[in-house]
Amino acid sequence: MMPDPRKPPNPPKPQGRPDRVSLLQYAKLFRKDILSAQPDRLYRAWMAEFKTPFFRSFMINQPDLIKTVLKDRPDDFPKSGRIAEGLRPLLGNSVFLTNGDSWKRQRRIIDPAFEGGRLKDTFPAMWEASEAMVARLHEQVGKPVEIEEETSHAAADVIFRTLFSIPIDHEIATQVFARFRDYQRSQPILNLGAFVPLPRWMPRFFRKGTRENAKVIRDLIAQLTDERMRAIQDGSAPDDLATKIMTTQDPVTGDRFDAQEMVDQVAIFFLAGHETSASALAWTLYLLAIHPDWQEKLAQEATVLEQRDFGVMSKLRLSRDVFREALRLYPPVPMMVRQSTCPERFRNRNVPIGSQLVISPWHLHRHERLWDNPDGFDPDRWGTENGKICQRAAFIPFSTGSRVCTGAGFAMVEGPLILSMILRHFRIETVSGRDPVPVAHLTVRSRDGIWLKLSHR
Predict the structure, then answer these.
(1) Cα separation of 188 and 441, whole Å?
(2) What is the C-alpha separation between 313 and 92, in angstroms, rounded?
(3) How confident is the model at residue 2 (pLDDT cuts 50, 70, 90)?
(4) What pLDDT, on the 0 to 100 scale, is given for residue 23?
(5) Which of 155, 176, 312, 364 could be bridged to 274 by S-S, CB 3.0 to 4.6 A?
């Protein structure tokens, strides 16, 4: 059957590697891009094993096995310390890296700040950040725009406004944002420790600038947390996320985060909340650029934004479905790694103690034995029987179980709101000859950026 020339091609997807490569070849491919370093058969496999002289790794795509690891028995499968090696200089002992009792204590203090009622409280700050992004984009009309830079700016603005009640153009916020971009370019997650279980006494080697940028970012965050601590003490602190977290007592122990712990947590809020949202928004805008029919549907829906309150979110159903479809095709965090703490047997294979268990939203969300039209862009799928089943069993852009991202609800307000605000004002089209190529290091981004052109509606 000839392809329909009126139908847009499937969105870009990296070509997988050959099935068999040496460990050295795999390390080189992995350092270049996590996604294309994996073989195509993983889009069909329920489970795959990768052996090295140093460790054994199993990727699991079978939904019931993923449920066992992430939901039913999370304490038996803690986060792997290897992936943490490269992020430790910035994140310290943040909730993203800890396990066990330490992690549970941190979540008991953090989670109340992100409960449903607090989303309504943060909505005005999200709205202001959205309006600020629209104002910046008005200056870009008619010329090629690297939209990842713009979404990164907007996502960082949301974080600073909701966390510390300051906009991105605040002096310290601007410095953190600039330094973080440099930190990301050093690809810290690709440290040697991600491959080889190095002894604790052995020094970790990072690319130039990684440690320096991490230190500067942490020092700047420490300034913000110290100022907020003083404001809390004198009664002048705004009622934002930082104040909520810093004044919440652990219901079990009664203690609060100290200054060092708060720096750790703010670092991961910025990393997770800014980096992932920027990635998801950029890919969503690209998908709409190649699907102008959906772009017009969302622009029409966005007329409800004349209602400037939290209730408007219940009316942005199409925007939410489109954003969800972008999260399926381009999950910001492409892979999660857990470690087995006891002998297991999965799919008639022995999984020894200490094995890495890789759960890949990237492969799960495109699995050929689970999803209808797995590589196609189809926001209508969420209303189909297949879409509903897969949403429950095979859709984990924010992880799942007890370690589900604490900001998941936050992201599902921020993304559709900013998206609708943009489409209310602009039409978007692609730039000829600049098709994006997905790559993954810290998050799923485009190798050479995502280039779009905007025009006024």
Answers:
(1) 9
(2) 35
(3) very low
(4) 64
(5) 155
- Candidate from 52-66, 167-181, 184-198, 346-360 with smallest mean pLDDT: 184-198
pLDDT tens per residue across span 210-220: 778 888 889 99
The CA radius of gyration of the chain, in Å to the nearest whole number, is 22
Neighbour count for residue 1 (Cβ, 10 Å): 3
Does residue 1 register a pLDDT over 50? no
What are the two backbone dihedrals, phi and then psi, of residue 430, each rounded to the nearest 5 degrees? -80, 165
The whole-angstrom separation of Cα 154 and Cα 125 is 12
Strand partners for 48:
59
pTM, 2 dp: 0.91
* Rounded mean pLDDT, 406-432: 95
The mean pLDDT value of the chain amounts to 87
Phi, psi (rounded to 5 degrees) for 451: -100, 125
C-alpha span between 279 and 333 (Å, rounded) = 9
- CB under 8 Å to 200, separation ≥6 — which residues? none
CA–CA separation, 340 and 77 (whole Å): 5
Q: What are phi and psi of 382, to 5 degrees?
A: -70, -15
Q: Is 209 a residue whose pLDDT tops 70?
A: no
Kindly report the number of other CB atoms within 10 A of residue 43's CB atom. 22
Is the sign of the CA dihedral 166, 170, 175, 178 positive or negative? Answer: positive
**For residues 340 and 104, what is the distance between their CA atoms, to the nearest angstrom?**
19
Q: And the tokens for 208?
A: 């130039």
Write out pLDDT tens, residues 289-341.
Answer: 999 999 999 999 999 998 889 999 999 999 999 999 999 999 998 988 899 99
The closest of 132, 142, 153, 423 to 300, measured between CA atoms, is: 423
The least confident of 20-24, 111-115, 152-156 is 20-24
